[in-house]
Amino acid sequence: MNAIGRLAPSPTGAQHLGNARTYLLAFWSAQASGAKLILRIEDIDSPRVKPWAAEQAVEDLKWLGIFWNEGPDVGGPHAPYIQTQRVKLYAMALRQLIDNGHVYPCVCTRRDIETAASAPHAGDEGPIYPGTCSKWQVGDRLPEQGNYCWRFRSRDQPQVFVDRVAGSQRCIPKDELGDFPITRKTGEAAYQLAVVVDDDAMGVTEVVRGDDLLVSTFRQLELYQALNLRSPNFAHVPLVVGTDGRRLAKRHGDTRLSLYREQGVDSRNIVRWAAASAGLSIAEVSTSDSLETMHDKFAAQFNWQLLSREAIVIDSEAISFGD
Ligand code: GLU
Predict the structure, then answer these.
(1) Closest Cα to residue 274, out of 264, 262, 260?
(2) Helix axes 87-99, 191-201, angle to 10 degrees
(3) Whose CA is closest to atom 10 on ligand 1?
């Protein structure tokens, strides 16, 4: 089976240093194992999507010297996949889940429905849904259009997987996570559904992403099983955090890649920083190495075993990527 990795930026804002590190690790891992890489723009969270952010993310990746191999037929061989162009696939998977009794319409106006459109990052995990609407069965009347989301019935079987970074993981979704929304009230696919359908359709075999999505993986495994799909391997990368231990964000100062680019920062300095943070030896690269050579050298050394399980703490006010 061909190995395939993916980069999956959400164009809901600028990409920052933490995103860069995750993308670089995904890139080196793919290069090291001879896997192909695809780029997918996760733009289904329409209220939060910024019109400039997808193009900027693509520029950020190119600036870092990251390239991807595959793209859809539409838009050329290296054009990214765009989730908003793939909604029919999500609708088909939803139909299958409805017909097989895996989901029910939920009229509860809880925050988790609003936030479900995007990947749930740290602090987004709400309380466990109490199952208020779960008595619905296939064939029962549907609530009024626009008033409900589709919610997945989590099962009380343990879900287990071995993460390449975080190790053995186990959870009983029904007890520990509860039922979760897979669409919004507009009927559009939410993150969990879209990501599973896409990773399967694109033949993704290795998912590399921030470890704040570790918990979501259990939900996604539920969906893989309900849809009879084979799940990929997972590598959940510790986040880059500020000195207060919180996920890197605006309050920590500006670490947008586009800003560094505008300031004329040499992207090789960021690549070296990310390599050092992943346990790779930067002694083997020289400052005169091209970006491409640098990537070849880091990919050759890359090994998930070297990666620390601890968050990477940076003082973003003090950190400098100048020469
Ligand atoms: N698009 C998501 C994000 O940028 C990542 C989702 C994933 O990798 O599964 O937060």
Answers:
(1) 260
(2) 110
(3) 119
Distance 215 CA to ligand 1 centre (A): 13
For residue 103, what pLDDT band results from cuts at 50, 70 and 90?
A: very high
pTM of the model: 0.95
Mutate to test the pocket of ligand 1, among 43, 204, 213 (most ligand atoms within 8 A of CB): 213
Kindly report, residue by residue over 207-231, the tens digit of the pLDDT: 999 999 999 999 999 999 999 999 9
* Residues 34/2, Cβ–Cβ less than 8 Å: no
The phi, psi pair for 103, rounded to 5°, reads: -135, 160
For the record, the structure tokens of 266 come out as 């040499």
Count of other CB atoms within 10 angstroms of residue 87: 15
What is the CB neighbour count within 10 angstroms for residue 74?
9
CA distance 301 to 36: 18
Position 193, amino acid: L
Question: In which residue are the tokens 């050329």 written?
Answer: 76
Tens digits of residue pLDDT in 235-289: 999 999 999 988 887 778 789 999 999 999 999 999 999 999 999 999 999 989 9
Place of tokens 């595959």: 70
For the CA of 9, the closest atom of ligand 1 is 4
Residue 209 CA, ligand 1 centroid: distance in Å:
7
Q: Which residue has the tokens 């939410």?
A: 190
pLDDT band, very low/low/confident/very high, at 46 (cuts 50, 70, 90): confident
Pocket test for ligand 1, best of 209, 216, 224, 257 (most atoms within 8 A of CB): 209
